[in-house]
Amino acid sequence: MTKNRNLKLSNRPSQAFETRRPSDYLLRAAGSTAGQAYKSLAIERLGIEEGDAVLDLGCGTGGDLGPLLSSIGSTGSVIGVDVDATALEVAHEQYADPRLRLTVGDAHALELDSFSIDRVYVDRTMQHVAAATTVLDEVRRVLRPGGRVLLAEPDWRTLLIDHPEPDLSEAYRQFVVGQVIRNARIGSELPRLVQNADLELESVSPVTVTYTDAIDADRIFGFARVTHRAVKAGYLTPDQASRWLGHLEGPVFFASLTIFVTAARKAG
Ligand SMILES: C[S@@+](CC[C@H](N)C(=O)[O-])C[C@H]1O[C@@H](n2cnc3c(N)ncnc32)[C@H](O)[C@@H]1O
Q1: Distance between Cα 125 and ligand 1 center (Å)
Q2: Are the C-beta atoms of 255 and 161 separated by less than 8 Å?
Q3: What is the residue with the minimal CA distance to atom 16 of ligand 1?
Q4: Contact assessment for residue 118 and residue 147, using Cβ atoms and an 8 Å cutoff
Q5: How far is the CA of 128 from the centre of ligand 1 (A)?
Q6: Whose CA is nearest to atom 26 of ligand 1?
Q7: Is the pLDDT of residue 219 over 70?
């Protein structure tokens, strides 16, 4: 556990945390040790076989492309799709692999043939999309019969951040759920949504990711930025925000968030 005792407490929010989203945010978030437990389970549950065509939907900067590429053998292929061209450029710089294709695209309207994909990997993309049901219909369309989709998504109502004033944690969580993440409840909604999309639910495993290092957690949560927005939206007063961040910057820290690792299959 990293102690943050050397971080200077301040009345101004915030000296310890990032105040603007850093450009390499996704890469750093993907590399955070806290996330590795659910990611390794998710890739295992995807059950990739040699020769498979795998789609990484919302691949971002490509943190998961390495494990996917190492599972497909010499005859398989991986397609990384994301709306964010800048993130894809970062992914592109990391891999020179003829089995990999990276393409800018929208999960709601994939430029892929029907029945062309064996496995679809979706890691924290559904929480952001405009229409989750449309995306799941697209996933079903591109999957071959018997193919599998693996979705790893949080339910942000499970966000717990320890603070001596629990009301501040609650206000912050309510702001994140209500105003920050578009589909904040998606993790626990997936079992219903995949079955409504005519996919067979195979398994759901909640994995709770814990953070004991505030700076590590800040890479995912962006405490200063989100707190600033919470003040503007009236969820916290400036004084409360100062006390909230002041404690988070202190010597001990604990937060957790549950990610639902959900596997579903297209009938074969
Ligand atoms: C939290 S990031 C996760 C990235 C990556 N899957 C990972 O685990 O590191 C969510 C990603 O979804 C992408 N995304 C959001 N909406 C999308 C859409 N409609 N179509 C494709 N990608 C989308 C974002 O650009 C972003 O890269």
Answers
A1: 4
A2: yes
A3: 129
A4: yes
A5: 7
A6: 60
A7: yes
Yes or no: say if 82 and 88 are a contact pair by the CB < 8 Å rule: yes
Nearest partner of 58 among 191, 144, 151, judged by Cα: 151
Gap from CA of 62 to ligand 1 centroid (Å): 10
- The Cα angle at residue 221 between residues 16 and 174, in degrees rounded to 5: 115
Tell me which of 61, 108, 128 to substitute to probe ligand 1's pocket, judged by most ligand atoms within 8 Å of the beta carbon. 128
The answer, yes or no, to whether any atom of ligand 1 lies below 6 A from the CB of 153, is no
Rounded to the nearest angstrom, the gap between the alpha carbon of residue 185 and the centroid of all alpha carbons in its chain is 13
Instruction: Please name every residue paired with 27 in a beta bridge, in sequence order, or none if there are none.
Output: none
pLDDT value at position 36? Answer: 87
Q: Which atom of ligand 1 has the smallest separation from the CA of 63?
A: 9
Is 241 exposed, middle or buried (CB count within 10 Å of its CB: 0-12, 13-18, 19+)?
buried
pLDDT tens digits along 221-237: 999 999 999 999 999 99
Count Cα atoms within 13 angstroms, Cβ side, for 90: 17
The residues, any chain, with a CB within 8 Å of residue 29's CB and separated by 6 or more, are 35, 63, 219, 220
pLDDT at 56 over 60: yes
Cis previous bond, 14, omega within 30: yes
Q: How far apart are CA 172 and CA 13, in angstroms?
A: 15
Domains, the chain, in order of start with CATH, read 25-265 (3.40.50.150)
Residue nearest to atom 14 of ligand 1 (CA): 58
pLDDT(11) > 60:
no
Residue with tokens 């990610």: 259
Substitution candidate for ligand 1 out of 59, 82, 156 with most atoms within 8 A of CB: 82
